[in-house]
Write a structure and sequence with these properties.
Layout: H1 4-19, H2 23-33, H3 37-59, H4 62-68, H5 70-97, H6 115-127, H7 130-139, H8 150-178, H9 180-183, H10 186-209
Length: 211
């Protein structure tokens, strides 16, 4: 199993990664800011399910084979970029399509406010990001002590990453809830979705163009 030193060292690395603003942060904040707490927690659980999958596959050595395959990596990279672009397009499109009905409670709230809907969105976003697999292949083995069982130790370390991600997401949801009254106004919703859509589109372009 992982030693205390390896656990704390890994926690520091993934903690800094978790705190760095990125796609996950944008999705959680946007969903929670619209007052959709069930879906926001679904997004969090979906993201962390993807993290668990990447950690387990890396511990089994599967992602090493994946990242070594240029074709497999490219297929997943373009699929992820396409999914993010579609998500961004829908967010921005709906702010214009629903302008005439912006005063209605249902306006600018694409998708159902359910845990399962959020989980699907979070899981797809994470699993279609090959850089998560590359990150785990590059980082996780460095924190597995010599002689330790690779699979069980890898799962423990992945659990640390998941725990930090859930705590940080809970803080993001709480922060978004405090600002929720203002952010749920029609104009604020439209602005939030356009900004979030632009951020997600930026990540999609970066994923597509980065080798």
């Amino acid at each position: 199993m992982a030693t205390g030193t390896s656990l704390w060292s890994f926690a520091l690395v993934v903690g800094l990664l978790t705190l760095t603003p990125g796609l996950d942060t944008a999705l959680v904040l946007r969903t929670a800011a619209l007052g959709r707490r069930a879906r926001a927690w679904g997004v969090v659980l979906g993201i962390q399910s993807g993290t668990l999958a990447w950690g387990a596959l890396t511990s089994l050595g599967v992602t090493a084979l994946f990242t070594a395959s240029h074709i497999a990596y490219e297929v997943l990279r373009w699929a992820g970029a396409a999914y993010l672009l579609w998500m961004a397009f829908r967010m921005v499109r709906d702010t214009f399509r629903d302008r005439a009905t912006a005063e209605t409670p249902a306006a600018l709230t694409t998708g159902a406010d359910t845990l399962s809907a959020g989980w699907r969105q979070g899981a797809l976003t994470n699993l279609l990001n090959p850089k998560m697999g590359a990150f785990y292949v590059a980082v996780l083995p460095q924190f597995v002590p010599a002689g330790a069982d690779h699979f069980s130790t890898g799962l423990v370390l992945t659990g640390v990453h998941i725990a930090l991600g859930v705590v940080w997401s809970a803080l993001l949801i709480a922060f978004a809830t405090v600002l929720g009254t203002w952010l749920r106004k029609p104009r604020a919703r439209a602005l939030l979705d356009r900004i979030t859509g632009a951020v997600i589109a930026g990540f999609a372009v970066r994923l597509a163009l980065t080798d």
